[in-house]
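User: Predict structure, ligand uridine-diphosphate-N-acetylglucosamine.
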Amino acid sequence: MKILVTGGSGYIGSHTSLALLEAGHDVVVVDNLTNSTKTSLDRVQELAGRRLAFHQVDLLDEKGMSAVFEQEQVDAVIHFAGLKAVGESVDKPLYYYHNNVGGTISLLRVMDAHEVRTMVFSSSATVYGASEEVPLIEKMPLDAVNPYGRTKEQIEDILSDVGAADPRWNVALLRYFNPVGAHPSGRIGEDPTGTPNNLLPFVAQVAVGRREKVMVFGNDYPTPDGTGIRDYIHVVDLAAGHLAALEYLARHGGVHRWNLGTGDGSSVLEVLAAFSAAAGHDVPYEFAPRRPGDAAVSYADPSSALADLGWSATRTLDEMCEDHWRWQKDNPQGYASGA
Ligand code: UD1
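Assistant: Predicted complex:
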């Protein structure tokens, strides 16, 4: 198949584009490069030994997107493009709703006009909000607690309505838990702009000497070691989940939702220990107050994805940290490190 990947030069998009190429699909990336660089795609092509097509277009530019659809004749879309910083979304809600929700509506209109009605959407476990019930299962009520999360929830609603109105749409809503790690080659990985918001990229930058120490947000949670528990998932496993969802949509209509997680939780201190072991030296940290809006424990029930897609995550926390570390060590300044 020929797959259009929005946000394909970003962290999860680049790993998924590689997986698509390796599986023999043709890939067309659309990205406005606001939060990523084309270097990731150079490296994806180098790893795959195959070319992909790239168009620097913003999803809100319907004319530009129509031109891409006319030129490329794609079969399906994997939609990653979106803004994703929680704090920034609280400060700039209109920017978030316009880009994420508005950009998706524009994309869906262009897809519909070109009779492309298969979409895999990059949603997030953030749609469950600060649910105290674990594991999280797909049928639980959604209750995102910040504008970023609400854009994901609203896009899920829009796609559900579109699918209900027109049975020709085939849609997968993939709710990612905490994607970490990197391709084992160390050539592609997460390259956050500015101070990382998420744990793993922050830990990696401390380990490589770019930052002094990790602040552990809260050590008084009701968990065995007092720190927050999350379901970290290797980005290569996550990428494979997208291929499994695409294959499913080739055979089934309708709108479907799946958690993509391992089903296991790890605490912040467990992550620090695993990363220190991978890096071969202790990563310094300090306890700090809880971060507002954080749940104590979040992990997936991934059994639906296994039952429906035959997909499950196989990589361990140690592998996630080893691969994340290889990427960070080889590219201390991310893609700006060069070569
Ligand atoms: C965060 C976002 C979520 C988003 C997800 C993926 C918040 C409140 N939630 O989820 O909406 O979908 O990222 O982008 O921002 N931690 C530290 N020190 C740090 C950073 C994190 O101790 O410097 C802790 C957190 O308290 C948490 C765990 O590490 O217990 C994971 O944090 P993070 O990587 O930010 O992911 P989430 O909070 O799960």
